[in-house]
Amino acid sequence: MQIADLEKLRAIKNLIIDMDGVLYRGLEPLPGGREFLSYLRSEGVPFILGTNNSTLTPRQYVAKLEAMDIQITEEHILTSGQATALYLAQIASPPANVYAIGEEGLISALEEQGFVLAGQDVDFVVVGMDRQLTYEKLKIASLAIRAGATFIGTNPDTTLPTEEGLLPGNGASLAALEAATGVSPVVIGKPQPTLLRLAMERMKATPDTTAIIGDRLETDILGGKNLGLTTILVLTGISHREELGTSAYQPDLVFDDIGRFHEAWRGERSRRTSC
Ligand SMILES: [Mg+2]
User: Fold this and answer.
1) How far is the CA of 273 from the centre of ligand 1 (A)?
2) How far is the CA of 238 from the centre of ligand 1 (A)?
3) Cα 46 to ligand 1 centroid, rounded to whole Å
4) Helix (H, G, I), strand (E, B), or coil: what is residue 99?
């Protein structure tokens, strides 16, 4: 490692960590994830597990990680569904009427912020991943956007990696509505800044001491770069080493997996405290 890289490692005091492709893939834990999170907790390092996935609630994420023997609490989770509801609460005063396409994670986050979910006369159309998406839902959303409702998307991921292959992600639903209405959505998740800003706010962190660890160049790494965070790519998910040569989004540091990052960063942290 170069001296400049070690300096970058040393500056990191707060972490935003992507989950899928970093801590686990599907239901399989990835090497070093559990040890890393238990280190963060024992050292009291502020961290947020920030995901573009809006389908699950924080409680469901805690249970999912618990099943992999990874212990965290709900305040460590920030989904794009929660970030969307928090953003809406900042720009609108509940009870505003919202038409929402999405699953439990998004719907419960909107309800928690006091929004009224409705099909007509809505101020906002909020669209997240919905595996029960129908023409009827697209119709209602489309008419509402044409009638002047603000169009908001939880996350722009066009694909969803699964055991079956790449399935349509929320970006595909947003594209359908964009084609139908001529209106582009305000997007909350990575690489847009809102989710990452909310994560930093929760940690009371600033960009110069915050790093994002992710597996996807065009969301995690680009999003981090847009806000001036230290960007760390791990190669256990979507983006591979070969893409780095041609990608417009170059991470500050690259590790084979989160365990290797943990090793390097822990080494630098202990050197800092011993000198
Ligand atoms: Mg990921």
Assistant:
1) 32
2) 7
3) 20
4) strand
| Span from the CA of 93 to the centroid of ligand 1 (angstroms) | 32
Residue 81 gets which letter from DSSP? H
Q: Could you give the CA distance from residue 140 to residue 214 in angstroms, rounded to a whole number?
A: 35
Beta bridge partners of 29: 24
**Rounded to the nearest whole angstrom, what is the distance from the C-alpha of residue 21 to the centroid of ligand 1?**
5
DSSP 8-state secondary structure symbol assigned to residue 20: B
What is the rounded distance in angstroms from the CA atom of residue 122 to the CA atom of residue 160?
Answer: 29
Q: Which amino acid is at 4?
A: A
Average pLDDT taken over every residue of the chain: 95
Q: How many Å apart are CA 252 and CA 69, to the nearest integer? A: 30
Rounded CA-CA distance 173/175 in Å is 5
Point out the residues that are catalytic: 18, 20
Predicted pLDDT at 176: 98
Residue 162: its pLDDT value, please?
A: 81
Q: Are strands 24-25 and 28-29 parallel, antiparallel or unpaired?
A: antiparallel
Splitting the chain (275 residues) into consecutive groups of 10 residues, what average pLDDT does each group show?
91 97 92 97 97 97 96 97 97 90 98 94 97 98 98 95 89 98 98 98 98 96 98 95 94 98 95 67
Model pTM?
0.95
Question: What residue ranges define each of the domains in the chain, with the CATH number in brackets?
Answer: 3-52+190-274 (3.40.50.1000), 82-187 (3.40.50.1000)
Sheet holding 77-79, edge to edge: 77-79, 47-51, 14-17, 210-214, 230-234, 253-255
Cα Rg of the chain, angstroms: 19
Total residue length of the chain: 275
pLDDT at residue 163, rounded to an integer: 79
- Residue 125's pLDDT is 98
